[in-house]
Design goal:
The chain has helices at about 5-25, 35-60, 60-95, 95-130, 130-150, 160-170, 195-215, 225-235, 235-245, 255-270, 280-314, and strands spanning about 180-185, 190. With about 325 residues, it is mainly alpha-helical. Keywords: Membrane, Transmembrane, Transmembrane helix.
Length: about 325
């Protein structure tokens, strides 16, 4: 589907305005983001995303609206995996809660540009080489299986070869200097732990984008819907992190449910020339899988808490 240039420009302008308000007005001063503030911002971003989805539905039809909503739900759910990694990065590098929003802001700003480039490349490949769709589909199925088998493992980007190589190349200091990414010591310009946290977050986002972008292309081939649903999910990632970081590990069955989603959309993509799945069916299946994972996680966490409480009382 062709989209008018003004739609792209208006969306880009909206994103820039919201980012300017975020850093320049609401978070001009560094502070630790509390649960109430995080919840408020999460609701704002979700409301904006759903409002945009309503626009897509009214202007471009029900199928496009359902594709946008399904893409947004998938990307929002997959982004929770990023939160696990953010918790590890900030903990390993000793980044205080006071400066975490600043790191995430610049990390997500870079992610917007990188994902835009990756979406444009993916759309061009699918347009020119139809067989790429089978590669994407197979890749998503394999990724889902791998995620299911490795669901008990914890990723440690701060121990990766990329991080070690970066430490060798970039002169660094273990000392924080306020909210600065670089500082000067003994006449030398050195990177602070904030810089390395930012670099790891950007690297992590690229890795996750390799999974999430093909997952949305499995729902729709419309670059505008792929891009806007992806960006809205990313824009709400910071507030979601501050809301869920303290208890994200309680979602025991989240990763298996995400794995099932990747397998479903991968199979849908690989079989696109054989089986046509209506957007409403895709949305229903994805929502059911994720809801099952979340509910099962909450039930298990509640039973575990009740069991611990009972043991403590005896």
């Amino acid at each position: 589907m062709e989209h008018a240039l003004w739609e792209w420009a208006a969306f880009g302008g909206f994103v820039l305005v919201m980012l300017a308000l975020d850093l320049g007005v609401f978070h001009r001063k560094d502070h630790a983001v509390g649960p109430r503030e995080a919840l408020a911002w999460s609701l704002v971003w979700i409301a904006l995303a759903l409002g945009f989805g309503a626009y897509v539905w009214m202007r471009h039809g029900a199928d496009s609206g359902l594709e946008y909503l399904t893409g947004y739900v998938i990307e929002k759910s997959l982004s929770v995996d990023n939160i696990f990694v953010f918790v590890v990065i900030f903990g390993a590098l000793g980044i205080p809660a006071l400066y975490q929003h600043r790191v995430l802001f610049w990390g997500i700003l870079s992610a917007l540009v990188l994902r835009g480039a990756m979406i444009a490349a993916g759309a061009a490949l699918l347009e020119r080489f139809h067989w790429i769709i089978y590669v994407f589909g197979g890749f998503l199925v394999l990724t889902g299986v791998k995620l299911f088998l490795a669901r008990g493992g914890v990723s440690h980007p701060e121990q990766s070869a990329v991080f070690r190589a970066l430490k060798r190349v970039v002169p660094a200091t273990p000392r924080l200097d306020g909210n600065r990414f670089f500082t000067v010591e003994g006449g030398r310009r050195l990177a602070t732990p904030l810089f390395f946290a930012l670099a790891l977050i950007e690297f992590t986002d690229v890795v996750f984008a390799v999974d999430s972008i093909p997952a949305i292309f499995a729902i729709t081939r419309d670059p505008f819907i792929v891009f806007t649903s992806n960006i809205f999910a990313i824009l709400g990632l910071r507030s979601l992190y501050f809301l869920l970081a303290s208890f994200v590990e309680r979602f025991t069955y989240l990763k298996p449910s995400l794995a099932a989603v990747l397998v479903f959309v991968g199979a849908k993509m690989a079989l696109v020339d054989v089986v046509k799945v209506h957007p409403a069916v895709s949305l229903g299946v994805v929502t059911l899988i994720l809801a099952t994972g979340v509910v099962a996680s909450l039930v298990v966490a509640r039973r575990s808490a009740a069991s611990s409480g009972g043991s403590a009382g005896t």
